[in-house]
Amino acid sequence: MKNTIGLLGVGNMGTAILEGLFKKRVSSPRRVWVYDKMRAKESAFARKWGVRRAASAEDLARRVQWVILAVKPQDLAVTGAELKPALTKKHGIISILAGTPAAKIRRAVGAKPVIVRSMPNLGAKAGASMTAVTGSSRSALRIAKTIFDACGRTVVLPERFFDLVTAVSGSGPAYFFFLMEVLARFGASHGLSRADAELLAVQTASGAALLAAGGEASPQEWRARVTSKKGTTEAAFKVMKRSGVEKILARAFQAALERGRELSRSV
Ligand SMILES: NC(=O)c1ccc[n+]([C@@H]2O[C@H](COP(=O)([O-])OP(=O)(O)OC[C@H]3O[C@@H](n4cnc5c(N)ncnc54)[C@H](OP(=O)(O)O)[C@@H]3O)[C@@H](O)[C@H]2O)c1
Predict the structure, then answer these.
(1) Do 29 and 143 fall within a single domain?
(2) Strand 5-8 vs strand 66-69: parallel, antiparallel, or unpaired?
(3) Domain that holds residue 256
(4) Ligand 1 pocket: which residues have CB below 6 Å?
């Protein structure tokens, strides 16, 4: 049972995380069990990767040490009640439920298991998640970090930052998609085909992200390097500055943060 992993909720995020583990060979499918109330999803994933199928959430918990809780937040109470009878002090629950505080997970699964709360993002589907993890057990955090490092990068943060993490990296992919969308629409409005305009925008975003993640310079430094005096990029930034784009974006991110706080309080 030691170091075995169970996925509860074989959906978009849960499968992206497991696929990362298998591709990076951090865990083998033989050590992994899955359970989803949609048995068809579970069996398709099991056939593809050769993982084993549990008969219920409780059965899953009897077979594994670490349970990745990957159902929707509104399914937590039901799932917790199903898991609870099988949970012991040797279990670890790694929750990826957005906007769901550890205290609420604790109420659902009872006093025994160790809990790690995490917040991955959509990048997990491309092996490039940004995941924040929090919890009080160092060894459980180490395991969670190993799991999430297999599908991107991981940072350990106090739980008080989780609504902020949700606003920055949780919703973040959509902000960048939006910029790509606007840039592509602009290209298309001046005569490029939709496909060419999207290629230009998306590949440019991808190159910029790779450079920024490379560590040679900060995003701000990269931007300064490509913004030559009296050039085209500078002309664009002059308009953005005059129009208060940074303030508008900060207001938008603040709205995401406040909505995250509201949702955390409501659960
Ligand atoms: N998508 C993201 O970018 C993202 C980012 C960070 C965190 N998250 C979190 O990740 C979690 C999963 O999101 P997702 O997009 O992967 O959802 P999803 O594709 O709907 O996957 C959840 C799966 O769990 C199943 N399920 C529900 N109740 C169950 C139960 N009692 N026992 C077993 N299986 C059950 C669902 O079945 P049904 O479809 O029949 O309900 C569904 O197949 C959410 O809590 C979300 O907040 C998502």
Answers:
(1) yes
(2) parallel
(3) 172-266
(4) 8-14, 35-38, 41, 57, 70-73, 75, 78-79, 96-98, 119-122, 170
